[in-house]
Amino acid sequence: MALEIITSDSLSPLRHGFFTRKGGASSGIYAGLNCGYGSRDQSEVVKINRSRAAAALGAEAEQLAGVNQVHSARAVTVDAPTQKPLPEADGIATATPGVVLMILTADCAPVLFADAEAGVVGAAHAGWRGAFDGVLEATLDAMESLGARRGSTCAVIGPTISQAAYEVGQEFLERFLDEDPEHQRFFANGAAPEKYQFDLPAFAAWRLREAGISQAEWLRHCTYSDPDRFFSYRRSTHRKEPDYGRLAAAIRL
Length: 253
Fold this sequence. Notes:
CATH class of the domain at 15-108 and 121-143 and 221-252: Alpha Beta
Shape: globular
Distance between the termini: 27 Å
Order of helices and strands: EEHEEEEEEHHEEHEEHEHE
Strand content: 15-25%
Oligomer: single chain
Largest sheet: 6 strands, mixed
Mean pLDDT: 97
CATH superfamily of the domain at 15-108 and 121-143 and 221-252: CNF1/YfiH-like putative cysteine hydrolases
Low-confidence stretches: none
Number of strands: 14
């Protein structure tokens, strides 16, 4: 089965893609293109999957640059493929042609950035905590340090958990309202008392626009509700599965 890659006209003509799980070598609960070494999948199979993803962007696996994702608000710049140990961060930027930035998600928002005019690209892993704490803005800061301008930078949010599938509790809601009462707009009432539905992609897009970039969009794919195409941490938890695969998103100059 061929790889399935979701792209955006906003990031063209730069080579980029949000990969679905289709076309990979993994099996079982990881069936498809699991690109996460942090999973308990066979490392050799994950290596094959990552090589396939890199090849789809016209690169070798040795050109990939990533970070040790820890749900932080930290972003780093790189000018070469990353070597182990990976830096602890959740955003990454480069102005070096040939370096392929890759981040991994399984419900959190994968965000790809580009200032094509300046020749700078970025990628971020933004779960609720990272987005709340400022990882998107930190990634833009990292891009600016390489010559990007926010006014000419666009950002695209790939497959992530949608509001309809993201139930949270009262404490979660209060954390956001304590920061800014206007955050109420990103919550809807849930099916049970003191349960709410959080709109992560809308929150991320709002943070990006508030940060002053030229364009921010969500591609409107829900990881939770489409098991044939996407891995989902929350869906795996609800199914009581022992682990879950990781989706890749990547961009290069």
